[in-house]
Amino acid sequence: xxxxxxxxxxxxxxxxxxxxxxxxxxxxxxxxxxxxxxxxxxxxxxxxxxxxxxxxxxxxxxxxxxxxxxxxxxxxxxxxxxxxxxxxxxxxxxxxxxxxxxxxxxxxxxxxxxxxxxxxxxxxxxxxxxxxxxxxxxxxxxxxxxxxxxxxxxxxxxxxxxxxxxxxxxxxxxxxxxxxxxxxxxxxxxxxxxxxxxxxxxxxxxxxxxxxxxxxxxxxxxxxxxxxxxxxxxxxxxxxxxxxxxxxxxxxxxxxxxxxxxxxxxxxxxxxxxxxxxxxxxxxxxxxxxxxxxxxxxxxxxxxxxxxxxxxxxxxxxxxxxxxxxxxxxxxxxxxxxxxxxxxxxxxxxxxxxxxxxxxxxxxx
Amino acid sequence: xxxxxxxxxxxxxxxxxxxxxxxxxxxxxxxxxxxxxxxxxxxxxxxxxxxxxxxxxxxxxxxxxxxxxxxxxxxxxxxxxxxxxxxxxxxxxxxxxxxxxxxxxxxxxxxxxxxxxxxxxxxxxxxxxxxxxxxxxxxxxxxxxxxxxxxxxxxxxxxxxxxxxxxxxxxxxxxxxxxxxxxxxxxxxxxxxxxxxxxxxxxxxxxxxxxxxxxxxxxxxxxxxxxxxxxxxxxxxxxxxxxxxxxxxxxxxxxxxxxxxxxxxxxxxxxxxxxxxxxxxxxxxxxxxxxxxxxxxxxxxxxxxxxxxxxxxxxxxxxxxxxxxxxxxxxxxxxxxxxxxxxxxxxxxxxxxxxxxxxxxxxxx
Lengths: 365, 365
Ligand SMILES: CC(C)[C@H](C(=O)O)[C@@H](O)C(=O)O
Ligand SMILES: CC(C)[C@H](C(=O)O)[C@@H](O)C(=O)O
Description:
Chains A, B: Homodimer. Chains A, B: NAD(+) binds at residues 77-90, 290-302. Chains A, B: Substrate binds at residues 97, 107, 135, 226. Chains A, B: Mg(2+) binds at residues 226, 250, 254. Chains A, B: GO terms for molecular function: 3-isopropylmalate dehydrogenase activity. 2 copies of one chain form a homodimer. The first copy, chain A, is α/β, with parallel strands linked by helices. The first copy, chain A, folds into 2 domains: 1-111 and 261-365, Isopropylmalate Dehydrogenase (3-Layer(aba) Sandwich), CATH 3.40.718.10; 120-258, 3-Layer(aba) Sandwich (Isopropylmalate Dehydrogenase), CATH 3.40.718.10. Helix content of chain A is 41%, strand content 24%. In chain A, the strands form 3 sheets. A 10-stranded mixed beta sheet of chain A has the order 2-1-3-12-11-4-5-10-8-9, sandwiched between helices. In chain A, a hairpin with a 5-residue loop joins strand 6 and strand 7. In chain A, helix 6 packs across helix 7 (198-214), helix 10 runs antiparallel to helix 11 and helix 11 packs across helix 12 (354-364). The radius of gyration of chain A is 20 Å and the shape is globular. The interface between A and B is large, with 59 and 59 residues. Strand 7 (157-166) of chain A pairs antiparallel with strand 7 of chain B. One 3-isopropylmalic acid sits between chains A (76, 90, 93-94, 250) and B (195-196, 226).
């Protein structure tokens, strides 16, 4: 079997610690399933800025472009609060997303049954929740120009960001959402602010057309993003796939993640278009949670979202469906067995650190 | 006492029904407190478009500018889904906000003790919740130019919206938030996406400066809007006043409202700057909820948010603090007595319609 190249970018904060636990699972895949994974590690974020003078170096970009998949921990932290805008840790992540053209960000919001009580929502509202947020990731206000602060010369400055969406960008993310809905419960909810934004109006129009022309067998609903956010909080189980733009996706996917009570458990996949020749997609997998600088280095971080991100990689980049299922089952079984890191500790459970949690999953994998 | 001019704009959907209940309370104020309110009624939203050809006519705009305060019900509904963008019902509301320069939108998110169980969140998370979202209302992506859909000529279109904030816009909303925090628990949390948006970066800078120079005795915290949204869902009681831009404010205030379980109970105030001569501020008061076209005309709508909006008007436009307190107490007592409209009905309570609810509040006022 040809070797599979994984680029590991642990990043800042707890990134390094949780990546170690992923490497344990990769070792198992290589040993028991002869998976042939080859890994390489590089810097991204604040640590890259400190060591290499940029939040992601050109050399690391080249490695990312050449890899079959990238696994990323997290970036950022108060240490770099004063760094110039272009050099801030997040700029490294944004460059990876943009230059690898990872336009489709898949964020499952799943409530692990063992963790339903960790949610701030009532158990019956979130138990069994399984929704998928499909967030556009290379467009919108994140990248549109002009994006600047200009001096107006009269003691006033003006800060500007630009939300831009072209037809093809909306078409491809809509198709991604419909394709995924077909493998699930067949329903897509598109969210925008068409009552206020021209981009929302046009988003609505394009998604509606793609549905009518290409996926008439599926269900499409539209929600204003504010009303959709309310429905997420009130009754999230009414949704299956939610498709939305970069900024609304940022907000809504974080809120959906928090609903589940399983934030430390949730992975994400960022995918590019399928290559016309090879059919391969560029891909980056990362947890939904951040770099948690407050607990970095204490061995308390929950590695499960990072491990679940590897499972998404097995599924979407390597078609190793059986292995992905097995790894996800190992995570769920570890939780069922009452093994918990501090963030999701509950009465009657056993509290473990980062390394022990990785070992427990590895044993069941 | 000089007469006080109120412009009533019931709008679409349930707007007319709930405005009737407000008129009952105004009648009491005039009868028992010789308040001297004079009311006039005009159209806004879809009904204005149908009858007058625009979602708000120039004549209505003139009435609004001349009034001491405007009370608005709600606008919009599926009936006008096909109307041209410039003529949609929401355009009427946006024109009122912009031309009256109502830059400060105050949205209290209060959990009425009697309704804590109506929340999808656990009782202990929301019981006693009392936060205030201060949303910038006349700037940002709602009004920035360019705002358009352009034909690129190659089968592609491009949709553009522009987020714009000038120094003075951020300064005045920051001051509003700090002034309000001083009358509360003294803490302001500013939310933006400084890690992605230049407007967020600049917002952060200006709010920080206003705090340092003018309100050093108060507490200021900063949150990224996505992380702030998560914290709202997880532990909303950590906040006091939240200050944020127009679009984030739209999302975050709706989510905060939904947390309380009291959506049908929540009012809002939109205020302009104090006039240099008279000290008077232009003002518009409206419920946070929408026009609920599905139940319009059935007599089931909950009028309490609309009545609570009048209470905010008494407080902020007329300095009738005692009357505002009394009206808010009447609302709370009605709920404590187990009187409920269908949306917040609970076992052991008495279900009433819109008119009966208004009467029950009037009795206790
Ligand atoms: C780190 C930051 C730039 C990023 C974003 O805003 O996209 C993060 O919040 C996310 O959701 O992946
Ligand atoms: C009706 C709509 C234009 C409005 C907004 O987006 O501001 C509403 O959602 C609100 O929050 O008042």
